[in-house]
Amino acid sequence: MKTDDFDKVLKDFAEEVNLAAKRTLGSRKIGKNRSYGVASRSLQKSLEYKIGDGKVEFGSPLPYAAFIHWGVNGTRRNRNAPFSFGSKQPPLEPIMDWMKVKGVRPRDKDGKFIKRIGPRGGDRLKSAAFMIARSIKRNGIHGLKYYSVALESIVPQFTDKMGDALVKDLLSSLSFKTGNITVKLK
């Protein structure tokens, strides 16, 4: 059976789900902080889908995508996630990059910003990054189920379209044969 109409609707469906997931990642808001957790948008840009054999697979090639989606349990706080921080702590380099992108700068005892360059600046920045990493390890990471949210919003819009396309494909593949006469529906 040819599924040309269904394949077109399935492609539109996958595109809409992927766009909704990107919107969910781009609009993460906690309190007054509208851009919480959104630094480089690399996860948002990496979301993709593949269609084959009537199946749609959504995902991202980035290794941390699952941690953002499901969250991570901390050593002191359970997030009901399949991942947990054990004795390991998040690496300092990504946290220092995040601090740079978000403009997080520690201050000295006089209240002045610490320079990124200098004999003491690098150590203090690493110290601040270490404290943030330790807090992440203790509290965990709250999951943002961006594909689940996208599917919940897009599936109701496409149920009728998918059903109609499948019925149309099925009817176009039917034929009736009586004797030497074959009748096909158009």
Number of domains: 2
Distance between the termini: 14 Å
User: What quaternary form is this?
Assistant: single chain
The coarse silhouette is: elongated
Structural category: mainly alpha
Can you list the strand order of the major beta sheet? 1-2
Radius of gyration: 25 Å
Q: With helices defined by DSSP (H or I, 4 residues minimum), what is the helix count? A: 6
Largest sheet: 2 strands, antiparallel
Q: Approximately how much beta-strand content do the residues carry?
A: 5-15%
Question: Strand-and-helix sequence, N→C?
Answer: HHEEHEEHHHEE
Care to count the β-strands?
6
Helix-residue proportion: 40-55%
Mean pLDDT: 85
The low-confidence parts are none
Question: What this model shows, in words?
Answer:
The protein is mainly alpha-helical and 186 residues long. It folds into 2 domains: 115 residues, no CATH class; 56 residues. Strands 1-2 form a two-stranded antiparallel sheet. A hairpin with a 2-residue loop joins strand 5 and strand 6. Helix 1 runs antiparallel to helix 6 and helix 4 crosses helix 5. The two termini are 14 Å apart.
Strand and helix map with partners:
Layout: H1 4-26, H2 42-46, E1 48-52, E2 55-59, H3 65-70, E3 72-73, E4 83-84, H4 92-102, H5 121-139, H6 146-173, E5 175-178, E6 181-184
Parallel strand pairs: 3-4
Antiparallel strand pairs: 1-2, 5-6
Helix pairs in contact: 1-6, 4-5
